[in-house]
Design goal:
Strand order of the largest sheet: 11-12-23-14-19-20-21
Radius of gyration: 42 Å
CATH class of one domain: Mainly Beta
Distance between the termini: 105 Å
CATH topology of one domain: Jelly Rolls
CATH superfamily of one domain: SPRY domain
Largest sheet: 7 strands, antiparallel
Helix content: 25-40%
Structural class: alpha+beta
């Protein structure tokens, strides 16, 4: 019968009414089988009696008797299914490579759940039961499964290593503290383990901070090289334009100029490459040490952590990069110095050519500014965002830093510490442009920010934090590009134009009167609304009392 049941499928032992294995199976006159309770209840609800499968109608309700053959087959099938489920459950606990096996299991060894430091044995769920229920065994110290429990025993006294000698930095047993370490500073193993693990976490954090600083320094140096190259390219272009217009006597001077500029650029790049190579080497060594520290800090093996801690390699020597800079060479006057070396007969022509170059630059800048001015939008200040020290004009076009902090509700939109205010208008597509008068001010902040910026407490103002801004402070102009970029301007702007191309990811600032580009943030990724952002700066004892004024745009002629 058992062999026969193996040939039958699960569907053959299921009642078509309750969809479960038969209980007291009965057969109808038409040959179909059901649980006795299921078919009886079905016929009690439906008149006349009808077979649920073939729909045969019985005018007289048939007498139902339990089919003993099918009942025995169903019972065997149910038992077989239970045995398979039990076997499948046991297989889930069979020890796998890399896991600790139970020391008590015979035959197939199961995975250990705990190891006992008193018994020096590891136990699966079944064999661990006495340690969880018997009063004598409950006092034993259980730990996560460990394969080499003998390492937890003192080789000298054959006792459990449950203490740590801080004087000698070794793990000891109770007998060691009475004999060899009697006067030493001894603490429980767990206490020292937790302390060392906390120390490793602090070390890991310090290493990650060092790595981050060096990565930022690499970015700063790469940016310096880019600026240097941009300056070199501009000077080379001007030099080519000037000297190619001259005769053969000028070509020699042109070649010397090109060589000088390229040599300075090469020296700058070599210097930066050398620093970057050193930084990358330090990052590599720090990452290696970080990996070692991280691996050790994740260890749940108290003994292994403490024994390995003292042998951990010392931190690799690193260089203090705080004051290290790659300073782009100055090309100012390079072309002119080369020109002065030429024959007197060419000076007038050289002066003419230089004037043409400068005029061309001015004309190009004017064309560019006129183009962006066509994207002018209406901008007014939003009093709900203004820091309480700020005073806004009634028309929302001017802002100054006041002498008294106003008692205003600290709503989520309001800046509470930094003296800033946003515009009412927001932009999430297209291009927009507006102008702000900064005449007479010794400090100011202008730009755009995304809607989700932090407005409370001290604020970090970088593109990563949602700020694309420039500012004037202590006679120094800077763009907060993370890190900040110092700006060298030929003149102090009295009116600043701000232009944004949302889809292009561009934020540009212009000196309106000089028709000159101040700075551009490029490659930006905008995903939120952008708001114009204003900061009039502190009053500075009246020196910075002039207001920031949102001015109407007068296109350049």
């Amino acid at each position: 019968m058992s062999a026969a049941s193996c040939l039958l499928t699960e569907d053959q032992f299921l009642c078509s009414i309750c969809l479960d294995v038969f209980t007291d199976p009965v057969s109808t006159p038409c040959g179909h089988n059901f649980c006795k309770a299921c078919i009886s209840e079905h016929w009690d609800r439906n008149v006349p009696s009808q077979c649920p499968n073939c729909k045969k109608v019985f005018n007289i309700k048939p007498e139902l008797l339990v089919n003993t053959f099918i009942s025995e087959m169903a019972a065997q099938f149910r038992q077989s299914a239970q045995q398979k489920a039990s076997s499948s459950s046991s297989e889930q606990h069979v020890v796998k490579p890399g896991e600790v096996p139970c020391d008590v299991c015979t035959g197939t060894r199961l995975k250990a759940l705990k190891s006992c430091l008193v018994c020096l044995a590891s136990y699966c769920e079944t064999h661990l039961e006495p340690h969880l229920t018997m009063s004598g065994l409950k006092r034993h110290q259980l730990i996560d499964p460990e394969e080499n429990l003998e390492n937890w025993m003192c080789v000298k006294h054959d006792k459990l290593l449950e203490l740590f000698c801080k004087t000698d930095q070794v793990c000891v047993c109770m007998l060691c503290t009475v004999l060899d370490h009697k006067t030493h500073d001894v603490v429980p193993l767990k206490e020292e383990y937790q302390g060392k693990k906390a120390e490793l976490g602090k070390t890991e954090a310090e290493i990650q901070q060092m790595i981050q600083k060096r990565r930022l320094k690499i970015q700063e140096m790469n940016r310096s090289v880019e600026l240097s190259k941009e300056g070199a390219d501009r000077e080379i272009a001007d030099g080519v334009q000037v000297f190619t217009a001259l005769k053969e006597s000028v070509e020699r001077s042109q070649a010397e100029l090109m060589d000088t500029i390229r040599e300075k650029q090469r020296e700058t790049e070599e210097q930066a490459e050398g620093f970057i190579k050193e930084l990358e080497q330090e990052v590599s060594e720090l990452k290696k040490r970080s990996s070692e520290v991280e691996q050790l800090s994740r260890s749940q093996d108290q003994l292994h952590l403490l024994q390995s801690f003292t042998s951990l390699n010392a931190a690799p020597p690193t260089k203090n990069w705080t004051e290290v800079r790659v300073r782009p060479p100055s090309y100012e006057g390079t072309v002119r110095r080369a020109v002065t070396q030429l024959e007197e007969t060419l000076r007038k022509q050289m002066k003419k050519l230089l004037s043409e170059v400068e005029l061309k630059r001015v004309q190009q800048s004017e064309v560019e500014l006129k183009r962006v001015q066509q994207s002018e939008v209406e901008v007014t200040l939003d009093p709900d965002t203004a820091q309480p020290w700020l005073i806004l004009s009634d028309d929302g076009k001017q802002v100054i830093y006041g002498d008294v902090r106003k008692n205003l509700p600290n709503n989520p939109e309001r800046f509470d510490h930094c003296s800033r205010v946003l515009a009412k208008q927001s932009f999430s597509s297209g291009r927009f442009y507006y102008e702000v008068q900064v005449k007479g001010k010794t400090g100011w902040v202008l730009g755009v920010v995304r809607e989700s910026i932090n407005r409370k407490g001290d604020i970090t103002m970088t593109p990563q934090d949602g700020y694309w801004i420039i500012w004037l402070r202590e006679n120094e102009y800077s763009a907060f590009a993370g890190p900040a970029v110092r700006l060298s301007l030929k003149s102090q702007p009295e009116k600043v134009g701000v232009f944004v191309d949302y889809e292009e990811g561009l934020v540009s600032f212009y000196d309106v009167d000089a028709a000159a580009l101040i700075y551009s943030f490029t490659g930006c990724c905008f995903k939120e609304k952008l708001y114009p952002h204003f900061g009039p700066g502190l009053n500075d004892s009246g020196k910075n009392s002039a207001p920031l004024i949102i001015s109407p745009v007068n296109p350049t002629e």
